[in-house]
Each structure stands twice: as C-alpha cells, then as structure tokens.
Design a protein that fits this description.
Number of helices: 11
Strand content: under 5%
Shape: elongated
Radius of gyration: 20 Å
Low-confidence stretches: 5-9
Distance between the termini: 10 Å
Order of helices and strands: HHHHHHHHHHH
Largest sheet: none
Mean pLDDT: 84
Length: about 280
C-alpha cells in the first residue's frame, strides 16, 4: 500500500505544539476506548500477574531461601511489579502491529495530523494502562502482606523507576511492531520475555545460583530495577557486595534511558519509512 499525504498549511511555534498535543491525546483516547470495549481482555491481563504472585508466594515460597533472611513475599513483590512492566511489551507490540497490518497506521499518516501523534498517543495510552496494572499489583501485594518501609517519598521513587522501565520497554515494542507489522509474531516476543524474567533476580536471589548464572542475572537490566525498588521499598534482597548491587538505583535509571535513546529514534525513523 502506498500512502498519499494530504497537504495542509504549515503550523509554527506554540500552535504546532498545541496541535501535536491535541492529536496525540485523540489517539490516546482511541486506544483507551478500545480497552473499554474489551474489558475481558483487560481483566485477564491484570489477573495473570496476580496468579503468578499467589503461585510463587504460597505454593513455592515456603521452599525459597533468602540470603540474610526476610519474608519471601516481600522479596517477591518488587520482582512482580517489574514483571508487569516488562510483559507490557506484548500488548504494545500487538496493538501497534495490528494497526500497521490493517493499514490503519497508513490512513493516519495520510491525514492532516501531527506525525508524532500515533506513536506518542500509543505511548501515553500504554503508560496509563501500566499505571493501572501497577496499582492493581500494589493492591495484591498489600493483600498478601507486602509493605514498603522506607517512607512515602522512597515508595513513590520506586514506582517512578518501574514506570520508567515501562516507558523504555514500550518504545522497544513500538519499534519491533512497526518493523515486523505482524501481530502473530507476538509469540516471538513471549519467547524473548520469559528468559529475561527468569534470568533475573525477580524470583530468586542471584546468590543462590551457580556463580556464572548469578553474574548473568545481576547484569540483567531488569535486575537493576528490581534491586533498586527493593532498596527504596525497604524489602529484603537488595544490595550485596557486587558492583551492580551497590549501584542499583543508578543502573535502574541508566538502563531505561539507554534503551529509550536507542528505540525511540528507531521508532520515529521506522514510522516515517512505512511507505517505502
């Protein structure tokens, strides 16, 4: 399909920004309306991480040993928060790839609207969805006995790091969706996401793993966010003698910024090249 762009008068200065924000919000409301019409899909997406919490917290948790002691469910919840942010890449990929494969993205590009509106609107909608999912997981954590112990400011900083991770992950999802344009390829995303989760400190401490495997788990960008949130929440399992353990908060900021710096420009570039 070739795209024919409708010419429209150039917009300058503040009017251009206002126009771009308005168009981005229109696309955001469109994506939110899709979720409102498919409540079962949204509910199932929220129930899956709750099921994982119950399974690991109550079925397997009794057999989990934490170096230094502590409650396993308090150790587990920051990992589950990060898991929810990581798994959001699948919904981002599916939504963007579906629009691209059906020609909807091409129609948007042919309309007199801001070029940034489609990707920015998708980004805003996904962040709102991530915030909802995180709120549900926090409620689940409180129900199973998880608490934060470092004060409200530290807790908010921890939630901010989780949303920053989601922000970076969604740009990776947008780029891959625009590149492949195949909704069925989400299976590939699932194959990639699960190893990232299990080769991290989300479910078990790297100190209990073989030396080389523990080093891989500590180097995982997901582990940085999990360790940093455990530190900010005052939950067991953070820190340690390794360099990554001592600099978890800095790495939790650095990795998402690096991923965003890579995939955001790639997403914008790929979006502009869709008709080529």
């Amino acid at each position: 399909m070739t795209t024919t762009t409708i010419p429209f008068p150039p917009v300058q200065g503040r009017h251009r920004l206002r126009w771009a924000v308005a168009d981005g919000w229109t696309i955001t409301r469109r994506d939110l309306a899709h979720w409102a019409r498919q409540p079962v899909q949204v509910v199932l997406g929220l129930l899956f991480p709750i099921m994982v919490v119950l399974m690991f917290g109550y079925l397997f948790g009794g057999g989990m040993a934490l170096p230094g002691g502590g409650d396993y469910r308090e150790f587990l919840m920051p990992g589950m928060f990060a898991m929810t942010m990581l798994f959001g890449i699948e919904s981002t990929y599916t939504a963007v790839a579906t629009d691209a494969s059906r020609g909807i993205t091409d129609r948007f590009r042919a309309m007199p609207m801001a070029r940034s509106a489609v990707v920015v609107g998708r980004c805003a909608a996904d962040l709102l969805n991530a915030a909802l999912g995180l709120a549900v997981m926090v409620g689940c954590g409180l129900a199973v006995g998880w608490r934060w112990h470092g004060g409200l400011a530290s807790a908010l900083a921890g939630f901010g790091l989780l949303l920053l991770l989601r922000f970076a992950v969604l740009w990776a999802g947008i780029y891959l969706a625009l590149l492949l344009r195949n909704p069925e390829a989400v299976v590939v995303m699932q194959i990639l996401v699960w190893p990232v989760l299990f080769l991290s400190n989300a479910l078990v401490s790297p100190e209990t793993m073989p030396g080389w495997l523990g080093a891989v788990a500590e180097a995982n960008p997901l582990s940085a966010t999990i360790s940093a949130t455990r530190e900010l929440f005052g939950n067991p399992g953070w820190g340690g003698d390794s360099w990554t353990g001592r600099h978890a908060v800095a790495l939790a900021l650095g990795w998402p910024v690096l991923l965003t710096a890579i995939f955001l420009p790639l997403s914008v570039r790929r979006y502009r090249q869709l008709d080529h």
